[in-house]
Amino acid sequence: MFTIIMTLSFLLEKVILISIILAVSLGVAMYSTWAERKVAAVMQDRRGPNRAGPFGLLQPLADGLKLFMKEEIIPNFSSKFLFILGPSLAMLVACMTSAVIPWGPDIVKSNGSIFSLQVADVNIGILFIFGVVSMGVYGIMIGAWASNNKYSLMSSMRAASQAISYELALGISLIALVMMSSSLSMRDIVEQQHGFWDNGYFTWYFFKQPLGFIIFLVCSFAELNRAPFDMAECESELIGGFHTEYSSMKLGFYLFAEYTNMFITSVVLSTLYFGGYNFPFMDIVQPMVAPWVFSLIGVGVLMAKAIGFILFFMFIRWTLPRFRYDQLMNLGWKSLIPLALVNMLITGALVLFFQN
Predict the structure, then answer these.
(1) Residue 326 pLDDT grade (very low, low, confident, very high; cuts 50, 70, 90)
(2) Are 212 and 37 in contact (CB under 8 A)?
(3) How far is it, in rounded angstroms, from Cα 210 to Cα 227?
(4) Which of 23, 53, 229, 230 has the most beta carbons within 10 angstroms of its beta carbon?
């Protein structure tokens, strides 16, 4: 009986944690649309959204209501099941990645048990993230092919070739990080970056893998299909891209998936290279506050780092022009992949040298 109660309690904790993570992810994605417009307005000397609520803060709710109320259109010559599956798969994949991310330090309850702020602490967390991210292109491919629109199909082919090209460099850059950490667990990688300074050097992997971080960051832009890598949606050539035929909340799912992916990618970048929920002088702060307060501080630190990356993604979008397709392919195959291989070899040599 005691075992059953403990199992139900564990399941209830995980359900609550998953619900909170999904709510936060969708909330951040929703208000990223507002932030995107505000950032663009600031950089273009405009006001941005300012009608719906104070400072336009209710604009995302108005946009969501508009998408819900719009007419649901499915083209006559489309494959209806796949047409609906495409945006559903894109949204599902966007939400799955958050399962292996440690969102904060464990909370020690009064009875001595531990409440982990991580849905699943699997020992192959990086492989899980890489596998889920690589599935994201299927939502684009299926939706575009099912639309029976040649422009959408061309857009999905561009997105697929772009994703394949940049996933190679992204994966090789992660191999160098795994060599240094000797672990594929996201929790282990975060714990190895404890604090900020140890044994005369920085603990965060950004300072140990600067080239790997730059490669991972550039590949993240390509994986997100954001400018200057938004070849899948360039309106001047492909009218609306892979979601040209979509309307109502099916279009909303594609747009939400993009911003959810941007948030999760920002969290992954913060976790792998910037210490996750670790921060300077955390060992001084921890004894001064309650355990649950310290965990909330860690969550806040991780969210602050992620928001910083989101703003960076937005600044780049409204600063750099779009690449030509041949430039995009050349950058991926002729520059990033060789750089990632060189970084991996140098990292391997240094790891062996210091181990010996």
Answers:
(1) confident
(2) no
(3) 22
(4) 229
